[in-house]
Amino acid sequence: MTEPIRSTSKLIPITRDTHGVDIDLVYATARNLTGKPIYQHAHCLLLEPAEAALRTAIAIARDSGFALRIFDAYRPPQAQQVLWDFLPDPTYIADVKRGSNHSRGAAVDLTLLDANGEALDMGTGFDAMTVESEHFHPGLPEHVQRNRLMLLGVMHAAGFTHIKSEWWHFELPGALALPLIDNANSGPLRLM
C-alpha cells in the first residue's frame, strides 16, 4: 500500500545504485519529441509516496524476472511549458493551466526490461504521441499487448494508475490535488 499523498512530502532522488533501475531521462537528451534537450542535468526525482510505490513496482518486476527503465519522473513546470509549446495537445501533454502530475512529483514514465537488459517491445517508442501509444490499442501484435499488460499489472499492483493515451505513463491516484513543485532553479534539475 502506498503512503498517503501529502503536499509536505519531499522529492527523493532515484538512482541505479539506490533503486536498481535503469535510468534514461530522455528530456536531458535530444531523443525526445522536441528534438532538443529540455533538462540540463539528468536527475530522476519523485515525491516520497511515489518513490515508495516505485520501490514496490521495482520489487514486483524483479520477482517476475524484469527490471524497470525510467524515462521521466519529476518535471519542473517550466519544462512542462516547453513540451506544451511544442505540442499543445491535451491528449498527450498536460495543459500548463492544469499542470502535469510529473510537475507534482507523482508521475513516472517507464518500461520493462528483460533479464538481458533489453526493453520489451511495447509497439511504439516512448513519447510516440500517436493513437498506437494508447493502452489496449486494437490491432497491435499479441506480444505487444502482453508486454503492455505486464507493465500495467506491475504498476497497478504497486499503487499507480494509468492514463489511456500513453502506455509508459503512470501516476499516483489523487495526484492532481497536489500543488505543482517549482524546483527548476533551486534543485539539481535545471532547464536548458
Automatic annotation (TrEMBL):
Residues where Zn(2+) binds: H102, D109, H169
Reaction equation(s) it catalyzes: D-alanyl-D-alanine + H2O = 2 D-alanine
MF terms in GO: D-Ala-D-Ala dipeptidase activity
EC number(s) given by UniProt: 3.4.13.22
Cofactor, how bound (note): Binds 1 zinc ion per subunit.
Site (Transition state stabilizer): R75
KW Magnesium (keyword) present: no
InterPro entries assigned: A_A_dipeptidase, Zn_M74/Hedgehog-like
Taxonomy, superkingdom: Bacteria
Cofactor: Zn(2+)
Protein's UniProt keywords contain Transmembrane helix: no
Annotated keywords: Cell wall biogenesis/degradation, Dipeptidase, Hydrolase, Metal-binding, Metalloprotease, Protease, Zinc
Cross-referenced SUPFAM superfamilies: Hedgehog/DD-peptidase
Entry annotation: catalytic residues: E166
HAMAP family xref list: A_A_dipeptidase
Task of the protein: Catalyzes hydrolysis of the D-alanyl-D-alanine dipeptide.
Family: Belongs to the peptidase M15D family.
Full protein name: D-alanyl-D-alanine dipeptidase
UniProt organism field: Paraburkholderia edwinii
Gene name of the record: ddpX
